[in-house]
Design a protein that fits this description.
alpha/beta; Rossmann fold; 2 domains
Length: about 290
């Protein structure tokens, strides 16, 4: 890469600006990218304002399916970001889009997830089946369930063992936390089901699976080269960008250091100190274009 000073790219500056001139939409990871914990980065609001001024759309992405869209919009509002439902894309919404596209006849779901997540599926027209052998679902969907009950885990294993479609919202084994505990996430719940049933999910969505971006591409009628995936993790955000043939932009405001990024087997095409620098480059690309 070029010598790092605020940003670094696999391309020359002219090539980078030409590539950025094609961007019509920015998909944004949240924690570590636009805020850290409960503190909004100082450059986030000017960055979002700059995107709007340059006619570039944006979406907020998260692998965490435990909260509803309303919950996430409330969190963003508390941080000072006025976002709309259309600007949020969670693994719950990605799963709903995936079911509609690949399992159009499925309506009845056994859901391992929080009440907030289940409400999203019900709002989309799906029926949440009960913990009963008489209430047969069309498919099982497993998510990050902070309300997980043992009997429901056992019922999910039963349905998985019957061979019905089995889908997972995300591969994360744990959810990051600064508390003295381990937050067991969807991937670990699926691990328990695999040990009990000898079966893995038929599909696991969420970053780095490209279906997470595919839903946004379809919603906004975009080509892969017209979207930039921006995040602070190589193995989820940047891997998903590679898998979806989108532009991968790594920010150094979160988890990943420059040394780790440059040693990655598939490094990002662009590394920036933070999203504010990306905003400056996008504005320059628009001006030059």
């Amino acid at each position: 890469m070029n010598t790092f000073y605020r940003y670094s790219s696999v391309w020359s500056r002219e090539e980078l600006l030409q590539r950025l001139s094609r961007i019509r939409h920015v998909a944004l990871d949240m924690d570590g990218t636009i805020y850290m914990g409960s503190e909004l980065f100082s450059w986030t609001l000017p960055f979002l304002s700059g995107l709007r001024q340059n006619g570039i759309g944006y979406s907020f992405l998260t692998n965490n399916s435990s909260k509803s869209i309303v919950d996430y919009l409330r969190k963003l509002a508390d941080l000072g970001i006025r976002a709309t439902r259309e600007e949020m894309y969670t693994t719950t919404l990605a799963m709903i889009d995936y079911l509609r596209a690949h399992y159009p006849s499925v309506r009845r779901l056994f859901l391992l997830g929080t009440p907030s997540m289940i409400s999203e599926f019900e709002s989309a027209g799906y029926v949440s089946t009960a913990d009963s052998a008489e209430d047969v679902p069309d498919a099982v969907v497993v998510a990050f369930d902070q309300t997980l009950a043992y009997n429901r885990l056992c019922r999910a294993a039963w349905w998985v063992k019957q061979g019905i479609p089995y889908l997972a919202t995300n591969p994360d084994r744990v959810c990051p936390t600064n508390q003295p505990t381990v937050l067991v996430d969807c991937g670990s719940i699926c691990g328990a089901l695999e040990l009990a049933t000898s079966r893995k999910p038929d599909i696991t969505l969420g970053k780095p699976d490209p279906n997470m971006l595919s839903g946004i591409l379809q919603r906004h009628e975009l080509r892969p080269d017209e979207i930039a995936m921006v995040g602070d993790r190589i193995y989820t955000d940047i891997e998903m960008a590679h898998n979806a043939r989108a532009l991968g932009v790594l920010v150094l405001s979160g988890e990943t250091t420059l040394d780790v990024a440059e040693q990655a087997s598939r490094p990002p095409e662009l590394i920036v100190e933070h999203v504010g620098i990306l905003g400056e480059l996008l504005a320059e690309a628009r001006t030059n274009g």
